[in-house]
Amino acid sequence: MEFRAKERVPVLTGVLSVVSLALVFAAVGRVLPTGLLPRSESLIELIPHLNTVISLTAILTILAGWRWIRRDDVAKHRLAMLTSFALFATFLVLYLYRVSLEGPSDFPAAAPESVYLYVYLPVLAVHILLAIVCVPLVYYALLLAATHTPAELRRTAHRRVGRVAASLWLVSFTLGIVVYAMLYVVF
């Protein structure tokens, strides 16, 4: 029996989503074996700053992809969205590395508790929720694009799902930058 990805996009989306989210939760829960990871203190300290630059760049590539598809430039749209996904994957690898070794970042003790409770935690919660929701949406849109011609894509949910995924992705990346600012710039 021949495996046909085109007919199995929902299943592949589910598998990739479960694996990706399991890795994230395992890293945050510190259950990944870290003995095999090389430890670089300078890289660990640099990752939040690198990931912010990656997030800003991803925001720009998502916006560019949106602009190009509105102009019916499929080739540039595809390149922008693949670049956005590559940036996200790079972000995720760096994040998993850092969190596996260090755990999640602590909110600075010098900051007011009211800021922590009423600003930081809600922003962080929405950022995390959107990041989780985005994973299957992004995989689904990308897998549809990878398995269908542009003409076939018009008859799929790619446009609708892609629009929602890109919107949520933009908000999640933006809130991630706000979290970074509260952890490393403001406080």
TrEMBL record:
Keyword field: Membrane, Transmembrane, Transmembrane helix
Coiled-coil ranges (or none) = none
Q: Which Pfam families match?
A: DUF420 (PF04238)
Q: Does the keyword Membrane apply?
A: yes
Could you tell me which InterPro entries the record lists for this protein? DUF420
What stretches pass through the bilayer?
A: 50-67, 79-97, 117-143, 164-186
UniProt entry tagged with the keyword Lipoprotein: no
Q: What is this protein called?
A: DUF420 domain-containing protein
- In the record, what lineage is assigned to the organism producing the protein? Archaea, Methanobacteriati, Methanobacteriota, Stenosarchaea group, Halobacteria
